[in-house]
Amino acid sequence: MAIGTEFHKGAIFFDKDGTLVENIPYNIDPNKISFTPGTDRALALLKEFYQFHVVSNQAGIALGMFEEEDLAPVKKRIREMFSEFGAELKDFHYCPHHPEGNISSYTFECDCRKPGSLMLETAAQIHYINLNASWMIGDILDDVEAGKRAGCRTIFLDVGNETEWLPGEFRVPDYIVNNLEEAALLILSNRSIKI
Ligand SMILES: [Mg+2]
Ligand SMILES: [Zn+2]
Fold first, then answer.
1. Structural domain count, the chain
2. What's the pLDDT score for residue 66?
3. What is the span of the domain harbouring residue 34?
4. Is the pLDDT of residue 184 over 50?
5. Among 160, 156, 129, 161, which Cα is nearest to 143's?
């Protein structure tokens, strides 16, 4: 552990759609949000050791399908779902951009859209997160790349949502799992190995 990072906690960065919650494309209805299988167990296992963050591409904003304000009830609902399991969602980070959007103010190549790592790096600055002690979990390889670029370890949730399988040096996950409980158990076993 580098000097000066002792007091910095690690974080779990969850992709939102298809990873933390069931994948309903461009959904902004809080009543349709539900955790994927094993997420409740994962939160219970990890909450003592890690901050929880969502890092989500929300291209629906650039595409004109909904507005940034429409994410407020989504964030609120996910926070409530965390608290139902005694866990805290520390922050919800999203990228509203897309290079081929319809809304000009959101249509450009940004650094925050995954596979870029800016959302994770910004979260780390705001919340004093040690990225090297953190994990990114996602259901596509862009999530893996974002996590690796930020210096996190990565877990790929293999539930059939990756379709392109583009290769790359940052696109090889540390682990592949079928649900978030498996991910949590792997994260905990890595902690015990380190000690
Ligand atoms: Mg996803
Ligand atoms: Zn962006």
1. 1
2. 98
3. 12-194
4. yes
5. 156
Two structure tokens written together for 108: 């450009």
pTM of the model: 0.94
CATH of the domain at 135: 3.40.50.1000
For 102, the token pair is: 């319809």
- Name the closest ligand to CA 139: 1
Report the alpha-carbon distance of residue 121 to residue 116 in Å, rounded.
10
Q: Using CA atoms of 147, 149, 151, 153 in order, give the dihedral in degrees to the nearest 10.
A: 40
Ligand nearest to the CA of 14: 1
In a domain, 122, yes or no: yes
Predicted pLDDT at 75: 98
Ligand 1 center to 55 CA (angstroms):
10
Mean pLDDT of 120-128: 97
Cα angle value 3/7/11 (rounded, 5°): 110
At residue 194, the pLDDT reads 55
Ligand 2 centroid to residue 107 C-alpha, Å: 9
Q: How far is the CA of 140 from the centre of ligand 1 (A)?
A: 6
Neighbours of ion ligand 2 (CB under 5 A): 95, 97, 110, 112-113
The CA distance from 108 to 93, in Å, is 18
